[in-house]
TrEMBL record:
Residues 10-64 form the HTH lacI-type domain. SUPFAM superfamilies: lambda repressor-like DNA-binding domains (SSF47413), Periplasmic binding protein-like I (SSF53822). It comes from the Bacteria. This is LacI family DNA-binding transcriptional regulator. SMART domains: HTH_LACI (SM00354). Pfam families: LacI, Peripla_BP_3. Keywords: DNA-binding, Transcription, Transcription regulation. PANTHER family: HTH-TYPE TRANSCRIPTIONAL REGULATOR GALS, LACI-RELATED TRANSCRIPTIONAL REPRESSOR. One of its GO terms (molecular function) is DNA binding. It comes from Streptomyces hazeniae. The keyword Nucleotide-binding does not apply.
Amino acid sequence: MVQRRPAGRPTLEEVAARAGVGRGTVSRVVNKSPRVRESTRLVVEQAIAELGYVPNRAARALAGNRTDAIALVIPEHQKRLFAEPYFSDLIHGVGDELADSEMQLLLTFVRSDKERRRFVQYARAGRIDGVLLASMHVDDPLPDTLAALGVPTVMSGRRSAEEPCSYVDSDNVGGARAAVRHLLDSGRTTVATVAGPADMYVAQCRLAGYRQALDAAGRPYDPALVAAADFTEVGGRAATERLLRDAPGLDAVFAASDPMALGALGALRAAGRRVPEDVAVVGFEDSALARHSDPPLTTVRQPIEEMGRTMIRVLLEEIATPGTAWRHVILRTELVHRASA
């Protein structure tokens, strides 16, 4: 005689009993938490399939104050979203990692105090389960405000070396150091840099890597060889024009982003300088811009899509396990050699 399961929707407890695990483990599997061993996940998924368990997402959301929505917050004008490959690559990585989950992604721009207050009210009302933050400036209070509200939050990059929040970052210091060391090792004697905005920690780190490479080679730091810009192509071109006026003998430029490196190429071309014969140029990111520039750009590859995927994994873990420790993840960078240097 075939034994039948009692009629009605199978429960989380029944799945846990069938799999021989606790209710919390089943919940973590259902919520796609990475904090489950693969062998345990397979056992739970088999129990779910055998029982025909379907998560009651509406009831679960009400019981746990869940919305199944997360926000990706970008504190920049939307024009930069479409002009800079960094943001599109980050969103691509985030979207890929979310593809198999039930989470909805909300893209939000926060460019003023008014928009920041409005977003905080939205988060305080419990309309999102977590937040991803990109392109943070050092004085931005939003991560601290979200932490005070108890909203799980993960940053792309960080505001300082002592960031009290989960983040996923690249080895910006090491990547910049490798780029400048390559220029010096190839015989360049006057290496300038187009640095990023001084109020962004990522720019501070890349400038620190530039200075470390100079120090290691016994070269003095010359402020005339440093011009700051805003990570855009227009900004990179203007900064390179300033460098050419202040230090006309430069024979190499390290730009702290690929768009700024493209701006540098344009300024050098307009000034009659050949790349790489007269001036070598290295960027940072390894975006599509680098591969298709003229000449193709030597650059530091940072795994932006992997940053987005990792941010989602860390955030889902924080959502599934409230009160978990902050995660600080640094991904490796790699110098990619092309014709510009």
